[in-house]
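step=encode ok
step=design start
structure_in=
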């Protein structure tokens, strides 16, 4: 009688790490271990409510230039190991999550500002450049890079490009796509392609730059970007408009649109959001009103803009204040960092967007969702472009934090359906990642999804890059 011995199981990711060490010793690679466990998650999927990060993380490569990225991608393909591109890990939709059998390719060491061309109003940067660092570098030139996600102090340009990140200034300057002119991208076969133009105008060929912007790393890894710059405004001013109710504040948003003023930033806080900021940050915003429209104006004619905006908002029932620079800075800090939980809560955050004229339709459904699903619902919005960030919560109390109620996700899905019915979308700026794939299917037709998958197959036939994300 003969005995057949099963072949030894191979760990392709471990074999890839060994091969990288032999063939490319100049590229730092960390093997899968507990020390890399943080690379399993991004900011949107990290365990909450004190839950520990358990188990080994994936292997992580840290290439320092485009050629090294190409080498890593080629060798990963030869070993059949899929790649998860990663910037700062500040994303909120699971786009940079990874498993132990994958290789994370971190772009954090591709952090050079290659060129600033003031007369062309462009900069050439690598993907690991932090958004805030770029603007600090540009300040002596009198220029700035307009996109400003709330995480601008830590998020990288590459991550912003991968998700087509939005932020506060979108009302005046648009999302990341409007500031990206060209890209160098490493494709799944390790080849390096350049798309787009250094010139502001250019229509030769299909717009592949816009295809890669917002593709969440499923089509290629950005290793260099040509980004558009703008002059630092001659003046900036913060204006607050407090209203007696959430409903009145929404009327105030309509008044801004009807006015001749086009602010750079228009943010809206409903009543529970103001109360939550006060509880978390020790402020007293709620004492000034039940909802807040927070506006930034910039450019020439700042006094005339302020006067016209004040007239429009006062007529809509607001108490309007042109804030001092110091108070304005404090308010923007609260917008970016002032929210949090003062008690343990289950939490679902969303990123829906609707035509800005339909914001009222979404806010008006919150009470219904609260009653139906026994949750609390509030939202802060980039109201100038209709992008809401609802928070759906329920206090944990004495319950087991791991026993997450299904009602939270059911309420979130219903809110997505409300946004879609209002002509909106499931994500305005955070991307799909892993968290929103089911919601994306509610918005996109089967034929639309098939077209996206065909593009993915054309550029990455083996499914090497960020599988299971975005589409």
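sequence_out=
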């Amino acid at each position: 009688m003969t005995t057949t011995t099963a072949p030894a199981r191979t760990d392709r990711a471990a074999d890839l790490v060994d091969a990288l060490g032999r063939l490319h010793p100049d590229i730092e690679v960390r093997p899968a271990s507990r020390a890399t466990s943080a690379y399993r998650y991004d900011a949107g999927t990290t365990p909450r409510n004190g839950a520990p990060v358990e188990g080994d993380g994936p292997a992580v490569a840290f290439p320092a230039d485009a050629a090294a990225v190409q080498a890593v991608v080629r060798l990963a393909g030869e070993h059949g190991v899929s790649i998860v591109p990663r910037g700062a890990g500040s994303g909120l939709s699971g786009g940079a999550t990874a498993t132990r059998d994958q290789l994370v390719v971190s772009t954090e060491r591709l952090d050079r500002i290659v060129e600033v061309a003031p007369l062309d109003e462009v900069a050439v940067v690598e993907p690991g450049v932090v958004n805030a660092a770029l603007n600090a570098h540009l300040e002596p030139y009198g220029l700035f890079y307009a996109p400003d996600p709330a995480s601008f102090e830590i998020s990288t340009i590459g991550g912003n490009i991968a998700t087509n990140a939005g932020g506060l200034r979108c009302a005046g300057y648009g999302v990341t796509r409007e500031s990206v002119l060209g890209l160098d991208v490493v494709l799944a076969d390790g080849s390096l392609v350049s798309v787009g133009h250094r010139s502001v105008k250019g229509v030769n060929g299909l717009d592949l730059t816009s295809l890669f912007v917002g593709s969440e790393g499923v089509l290629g890894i950005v290793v260099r970007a040509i980004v558009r710059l703008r002059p630092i405004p001659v003046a900036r001013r913060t204006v607050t408009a407090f209203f007696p109710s959430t409903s009145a504040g929404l009327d105030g948003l309509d008044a801004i649109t009807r006015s001749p003023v086009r602010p750079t930033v228009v943010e809206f806080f409903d009543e529970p959001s103001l109360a939550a900021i006060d509880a978390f940050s020790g402020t007293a915003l709620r004492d000034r009103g039940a909802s807040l429209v927070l506006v930034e104006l910039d450019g020439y004619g700042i006094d005339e803009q302020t006067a016209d905006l004040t007239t429009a908002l006062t007529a809509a029932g607001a108490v309007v204040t042109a804030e001092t620079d110091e108070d304005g800075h404090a308010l923007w800090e609260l917008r970016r960092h002032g929210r949090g939980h003062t008690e343990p809560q289950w939490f679902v955050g969303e990123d829906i967007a609707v035509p800005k004229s339909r914001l009222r339709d979404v806010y008006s459904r919150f009470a219904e969702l609260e009653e139906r699903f026994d949750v609390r619902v509030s939202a802060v919005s980039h109201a100038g472009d209709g992008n809401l960030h609802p928070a759906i919560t329920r206090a944990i109390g004495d319950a087991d934090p791991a026993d997450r109620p299904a009602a939270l996700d059911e309420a979130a899905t219903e809110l997505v359906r409300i946004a879609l019915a209002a002509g909106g979308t499931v994500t305005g700026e955070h991307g799909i990642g892993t968290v929103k794939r089911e919601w994306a299917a509610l918005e996109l037709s089967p034929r639309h999804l098939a077209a996206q998958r065909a593009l993915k197959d054309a550029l990455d036939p083996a499914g090497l890059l960020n599988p299971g994300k975005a589409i």
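step=design ok
step=annotate ok -> The radius of gyration is 24 Å.
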